[in-house]
Amino acid sequence: MSKTTLQLDQFVDPFEAKVVYQRDAAGKITDARFDLSGLPRLDPLLISREVAGVPDIVKRLCGICPVTHHLAGVRALDMLFGAEVPETAQAVRSLLADGAILDAAAPKLFATNREVATLLKKVGKQAMAAAGSPGHFPDVAIPGGVRAPGDPSLVTDLPALIDALGTLTTESTWSDTFSGLSVALVTDGELDSLGDSVAISDGRVLSPREFADLAIESLPGQSAPRPLLDGQTYRVGPIAQAVIAGEPQGPQGAVKAMLMGVVKRMQRTLADPALLEGPLVGDGEFRAGEGIGLAEGPRGLLMHRYIANDAGLLTQCQILTPTAQNEPWLAQMLRESLSSGGSLETSIRAADPCLPITSAPVGAMTIDVAEVD
C-alpha cells in the first residue's frame, strides 16, 4: 500500500501567486501568464450526474461564489425544463444575486475603507437573507422559480450604504490598453446581474445560446482555457460593465460604479410588490437537450452550459468562470507590465482572479515571477 505524507506545518501564503513568462531569441518578452493551476476545472467531475442536482454540487465545490454558481446553474435548468420564470421568482433571484455581489466586494475594501466594507457585508447578508438564504450556501432557486417569496423588511441598512458608497475614491488616471471586447449581461439595454441578453462592446446583443456558441475555448479543458468570443479576446467584470454602460473607468471607479448600480437595482427590487406575493414557479417539464445559464457575480459573467440525455444525466458540461474568461486579458497586462517595468500587482487587481491574493492589502501581494522555456 502506498503512503502519502502530509506536511501539516507547511506555511501556505494566501497572498502568494505565480507569474511565468517567456522571451524570444532577442530577449523580448513574448508571453506571460498568471498561474491558475490551483483552480482545476470542475466540469469533468459532473459528467453522468443527474443534471437537476449539478448546481447544488457546484455551489459547494466552488465556495467563494456559491450564489452565482447556484443561480447560473438553475438558469441552465430553466432552459432544460422549458420554464418561464414568474415575476416574483425573478425578483427574489435578483435580490439574492445583488446581495451576493455586495457581500463578496466587502473584503477588498476593509483595508482602505472599513466603514463601506462593513456596510457592504451587512447589507449583502441582509439582502441574501431577505431572498431566503441566511447562510453561505443558498437553497433559493429551483427550476422555473424559487422556493418562497422575499421579505424586504430584513434589509434595513441600504440608505446608509448608499451614502457611504459616495465616499469611495477612484483613479485620477487609468490607461486601458485592452483591444479586445467587453461583455456584460443586460436587460433592455441596462446592466443586470441576471440579464436576459449579453451586450458586447462592438454593439452586438446576443442571446445566452448565441454567446455560448461563440465563446470557444482555445485550450479546451485547461484551467486557463483562453476562450475567444467569435475569435476575439474578451473580458468580463466591473471594467467591462463600465465600458458597456458607456462610461469607461479604471478598476476602482468601475467597482464603485458596479456597487452603485447594484444598490439602485436593489432599491427597485425591494419596492416591487411582486417580491412579496405572486406565483413562485413557472410550468415546465424536463426535456433532453442543452441548457445555458448566465449570471453576473462580483468578478463578472459566469456561464454554466449543460447537455443532458433522456435519463436526465449530464453528458456534456462547460463552466466558464470570470477568472478563466479574463485570463487572456490578464496575460496581456502582465506581459506589458513585465516589458515596461510596470506593476504586476496593479494588473492582477484589475483582472481580479478568484484567489485570496486579490484581497491582500495594497503592497502585500507576494508574486513569484519565473521565466520558462
Automatic annotation (TrEMBL):
Organism: Corynebacterium kalinowskii
The protein's enzyme class: oxidoreductase
Domain of life: Bacteria
Stored InterPro entries: Ni-dep_hyd_lsu, NiFe-Hase_large
Recorded GO MF terms: hydrogen dehydrogenase activity; nickel cation binding
Cofactor dependence: Ni(2+); Fe cation
The UniProt record lists the keyword Metal-binding: yes
Residues where Mg(2+) binds: C62, I319
Keyword Oxidoreductase attributed: yes
Family: Belongs to the [NiFe]/[NiFeSe] hydrogenase large subunit family.
Listed name of the protein: NAD-reducing hydrogenase HoxS subunit beta
Binding-site residues for Ni(2+), renumbered to this chain: C65, C354
Binding site for Fe cation: C65
